[in-house]
Amino acid sequence: MVVAPRDPEEELKRLEGLKLGSYTITLPTITRPKGRERECRYFQMKVLKNGLLSTNTVVEGFFSVGRTSINLPSYFDIDYNYIINFPDGSVVDLVAENLDLDIFKMLSMLVDRGGKIIVSLTPHTRLPLIEETYRQLDKGIQPEETYVGKLLRSCGCGYAYKLWLIREGGAEGPAALQGEKAL
What is the mean pLDDT of residues 116-135? Predict the structure, then answer.
């Protein structure tokens, strides 16, 4: 039986319109990387609150549906932001509203068994829990005991962890924590 390859854009669009508490998920940007494989997309995930679109992203990064020809399962490589700003000046803290795990559960829906979610540990803005995760991992604390590690485990992507303090010699992005979904 031949399985048709999955379309990464269609997969990401499955997240569009999902409810996150009283907010709504939207993906205003999904683009195919130039010169990259057709199974990959860059994307931005934002939220709507009473018709207002957040001014910053909740999740931004890269998604691949994987490639069966080389036994590569699907994965995300993301920047995660739990402090969300809106044009009216309001700010939403997804951790304080207990919605942070829901974001990761949504992403995990698109990750195959054996796939992974890779989360950057060097945010572009001040995010104390992400920064704390980096410091803890740098001191040797086990990933599953950190904020990001707990999110990965709780969404089903904590079967195995890989710490990328220096990713492929620094050429493949910032320091990150990778969580794998069990086979």
Answer: 94
